Hints:
It is a single chain. This protein has a domain at 125-278: Beta Barrel (Thrombin, subunit H). The protein has two helices and twelve strands. It is rod-shaped and about 145 Å long. Helices cover 32% and strands 24% of the residues. It is α+β, with helices and mostly antiparallel strands. The strands form two sheets. A six-stranded antiparallel barrel has the order 1-2-5-4-3-12.
Amino acid sequence: xxxxxxxxxxxxxxxxxxxxxxxLVLIALSVGLMVADHRQQGLAAxxxxxxxxxxxxxxxxxxxxxxxxxxxxxxxxxxxxxTENDALKDAARETDLKLLRLxxxxxxxxxxxxxxxxxxxxxxxxxxxxxxxxxxxxxRHRVLIDRGSxxxxxxxxxxIDAHGVFGQTINVGPFAAEVILLSDPTHAVPVQVERNxxxxxxxxxxxxxxxxxxxxxxxxxxxxxxxLVTSGLGGVFPAGLPVARISEVRRDPSQPLAVVSAxxxxxxxxxxxxxxxxxTPRVALPAAEPPPPVAAAPRExxxxxxxxxx
Length: 310
C-alpha cells in the first residue's frame, strides 16, 4: 500500500542509488579492460606488477603450510636416517663376526696345513686331533684329544704338531685318548744330535719350555743351538722328527756329566690341533746264517743193507 503523503509536503522525485551506479561503472570498466587486454595485450605490464606486489602476501599465506611440510619431511628423514643407521650398525656387527669367524677358520686351515706338511713321508697314515682338555696339575703334563680306539688310536702312538714331537698316547678310550707331553717329568724320548749323530735321551723337566739331557758326559760334543731329532730307537717315534733345540750347556770339571738343557720345538702349552701318526717301526734284523755243511760219511762207515729173511 503506497504511503500517504502528508498534507502540505512537497513532492520529491525518486533518486538513483549511488551504490548501483558505482557497480555499473565498475562492470563497464571491467568489460572494457578485458576487451582491451584480449585484443591488444596492453595490461601485461600492469598484471606483472600486480603479481610482483602480491608475491609477499602469497608467501605469507603459504608459509605455515610450507613450514609444516618442511618439519614433517625433516622429522621423517631423521627417523629414516636413525632406522637406517641402526640397520647399518647391525649389519656391521654381523660382518665383523663373520670376518672373525673367517679369520679363525683361515688360521685353523693354516695350522692344519702346517700339521700335514710336518708329517713324515714314510707315515702310513695321519689324522688330525683337537685338544679338548689340559691337565691343570703342574707336575702332570697331559692333555685329552678327541680321537680314540674307534679311530684306530692305540697306546704308545706318536703325536706331533707343526714344529715337532708333541708326545705320545698313554691311555686310549673309545672316543678320546690321553697324551703325555714331552715335558712331563716321567717322559723320556731317545734323541740324537742332528749335527753329529750323537745319541742320548731327552727327559721332561716339568716345565713346558725345557727338557734335560742328563746322560751326556762332560766332554760330549754338544753345543747351544744344536737340533735334537728322534733317533728311531725305542719303537715309538720314527727317526728324524724334530724334538728340541739345545739352549744351555754347562760343564763342571768336578762332575762327570754335563748339565744340558733344551727347548722343545713343539708349542706344548699353546697347541690346539695335533697330528697322530701311524708308522711301522724299522728294525734291522741280522742276516740269516747258512746252515753248516754236512760232512759226507766214509764208505766204510756206510750201512750195508740187511739181507731179506728167507
